[in-house]
Amino acid sequence: MSGPTVRFLGGVREIGGNKILIEDGPDRVLFDFGPSFSPRVEEFYRDYLQPRSTSKAKDLLEFDLLPRVPGLYSKEALSDSDLEYTEPQVHALFVSHAHADHAGYLELVDPSIPIHVGEGTRALLGAIETSTRMKYGTHPWKVFADRAPIRVGGIEVVPFPVDHSIPFAYGFLVRTGGGTLAYSGDFRHHGPRAADTHAFFDAVAHEGVDALLIEGTRAGPDPRRNLSEEGVRRGVDRVLADERGLAFACTYPRDLDRLATLYAGAVAADRELVVSVRTAHLLTQIAPRFPRGTLPIPGTSPGVRVYARKKLTTQLWERPYLDGALSATDVRADGARFLLSLELSHFAELIDLRPPKGSPFIHSMSEPFSEDDVDAHVMHNWLKHFGLTFHQMHASGHASGPELLEIIRATGAATVYPIHTIHPEALEAAGPSVRLPELGSTYPLAHRPGPRRGR
């Protein structure tokens, strides 16, 4: 196949797992590299049955859950596998944002392949790696600036910030010697940085791209309300205004916009937001990259405290946050002072907290797939046992189905490939430009006839 091509190695009819390979002559650039949240994975690995840490690539390759791409993986990752190691044949890997389904397999990549990330994403990855079991490996990290072009051989990549449920997310314009494409990464139109998303798609329309690779997480059946962050805040205010005891909130630990909303709601209700040690570490590392006062910093900002779970051992990174941290006894004794941000994995703390019956539980998460999921049935069993009152309020990290259709039509892309969705066919309503990709298939990136814009 002559000319530049696009190959879909993941993210096809599944949520997450995006792995997009762009080839132009000798130059090969990969966009995102993480696991998917799809039933295909759960056919083999689920709950405590996971790939072995000593042979992760081998175990995933066994069931074709990793693409067999020569020159991508490290020699160590392929040790004892049936895929032979070869010298790197991928010349750069771009990460759109720090969610696990886009960056979670970086540890398997050959350490000589440059990893291109935004400055904020690099900081997030570092904070996540310190405070969790996630590992990203050793690489030549290349930090890019917003809208500043990066050359990889004959390919030019321009990163544009977009709004998402984790900060420092990007979409990309990719210019080759035989056409231009846009890759959206994950995005939304209704968050605090919606203007960034609008600016990216304006640039895509101006460029007159040959192909648009667009995430469609919420394409198809989607009964949820399309709340904005302001809508979530109003809901939090309503719950706290009527409550005189301990209140709980549950959100994704890396949704810093939501943590800012919960913090503002707590302060307005004359409460303190109480966060986990892990969240405290993330806030401390990332808050200085936001405008002053946007995010609370434990130990510095008023109105934010740290909750200390009982543990047999503590990690070195945890210790700075434990001075003055609250125990379950502290929180239980003066519950009306606090809004406790309880992570899903910490539900067992309710046994020590013993909240009064009817205490509010603000569930501020609802995406169908996430690295932080817990079975909804299990969660409601806990809430029922302790008599907590469930309140659902969440601003999605993804654009709604109608928004996606509008965006596709507005960009005027010659060909549109829906990815990161289990319902790609729902976007065919946008017009004949929509083409449903096949996993592992390669597609040409050809010039459209006639004059091109934005060049």
Write up this protein.
This protein has helices at 39-42, 56-62, 100-103, 119-131, 194-207, 229-241, 256-268, 277-286, 328-333, 350-353, 376-386, 401-411; strands spanning 5-10, 19-24, 27-31, 92-94, 115-118, 141-144, 150-152, 155-162, 169-176, 179-183, 211-215, 247-250, 272-275, 304-306, 338-341, 360-363, 389-392, 415-419, 442-444. It folds into two domains: 5-221 and 398-444, Ribonuclease Z/Hydroxyacylglutathione hydrolase-like (Metallo-beta-lactamase, Chain A, 4-Layer Sandwich), CATH 3.60.15.10; 229-392, Metallo-hydrolase/oxidoreductase (Rossmann fold), CATH 3.40.50.10710. It has 455 residues and is of the alpha/beta class. Helix 3 links the parallel strand 4 (92-94) and strand 5 (115-118). The model is unreliable at 367-372 and 448-455 (pLDDT under 50). Helix 4 packs antiparallel against helix 8 and helix 6 (229-241) runs parallel beside helix 7 (256-268). The chain has a seven-stranded mixed β-sheet with strand order 6-5-4-3-2-1-19. Strands 7-8-9-10-11-18 form a six-stranded mixed β-sheet, covered by helices on one side.
